[in-house]
Amino acid sequence: xxxxxxxxxxxxxxxxxxxxxxxxxxxxxxxxxxxxxxxxxxxxxxxxxxxxxxxxxxxxxxxxxxxxxxxxxxxxxxxxxxxxxxxxxxxxxxxxxxxxxxxxxxxxxxxxxxxxxxxxxxxxxxxxxxxxxxxxxxxxxxxxxxxxxxxxxxxxxxxxxxxxxxxxxxxxxxxxxxxxxxxxxxxxxxxxxxxxxxxxxxxxxxxxxxxxxxxxxxxxxxxxxxxxxxxxxxxxxxxxxxxxxxxxxxxxxxxxxxxxxxxxxxxxxxxxxxxxxxxxxxxxxxxxxxxxxxxxxxxxxxxxxxxxxxxxxxxxxxxxxxxxxxxxxxxxxxxxxxxxxxxxxxxxxxxxxxxxxxxxxxxxxxxxxxxxxxxxxxxxxxxxxxxxxxxxxxxxxxxxxxxxxx
Length: 406
What we know:
The chain is α+β, with helices and mostly antiparallel strands. Helices cover 32% and strands 21% of the residues. The chain has a 7-stranded antiparallel sheet with strand order 1-8-5-10-4-3-2.
């Protein structure tokens, strides 16, 4: 939700942030409130989170910095080893920290619901007078939350505006390698361009402060006399390229010319540029004529929602009481959902769940999707009380709704 974002960037308003900084310019928020992020991750909870990671998600732990390089990147996953490596100067990075800490998990889910993009959190714990990563830029937008200690930052001018994290993949490719393809800046060049980029600002991030960096902005950070712990909240936005990729797939399933194989042996033959251009232009014309932006938008929204993991425990789906018109219900915490109309049917999507119904249920389902808490009898759409109860009963069993005790 936007309230979650507003809390992270306060006193900057969400409206000002989205208008002036989002995808545009770095923002540093200095607060002089050391305990500002205490409810998200308290400094005293860091070792507990890392200990849990050693036991359950050891593949998410990485060592960074010169010490890690000297040790050849060897990764051992016990708290004793991590403490020794930390004392020798290694920065500890814990990927996907939200999986291990409920307040952080609910924060990232609220941000996902408000911004409509996948959100993750990485924890960085750096010893005194060390630098975990050299100057670089990220392929996704980030909010840095200074949890403990302080860290000195250097932010530079962006040589590449909004680098593309995930262009459409060919069936032969792995998605994770694509950020450096399609004419994007190669890794080695990125490091060189980062080093040559003009310094825009230098400052110290104190405990309780926030820093926003759009993707593509080179930066580096290091500690002084004290250790530092910060969370990096990463926003992996969906782009117009993603929308057009979905639209192209939809058109290709309508026009067989898009689905035909390229000429046999094309990779080893000389390109007949005139013939290829003629065929490509014909396909582009068909794409423009058949493009349905609404359908592409709806499918992309569905893809995003159904690929977000559920939160909550399995036992929450059990019916705890009889349902009647006065029973109050609510969405399960962190639910992302969307209603999509499909011909004569309507479907409610959330996480890995789906509920389909006749089109006449559209008004009722839209009300349920858009209202976080309501009574059974408040459901609109002309349903009888019996049908209202039957509808919410199915959604409780499917773990979209939960019954609230009075």
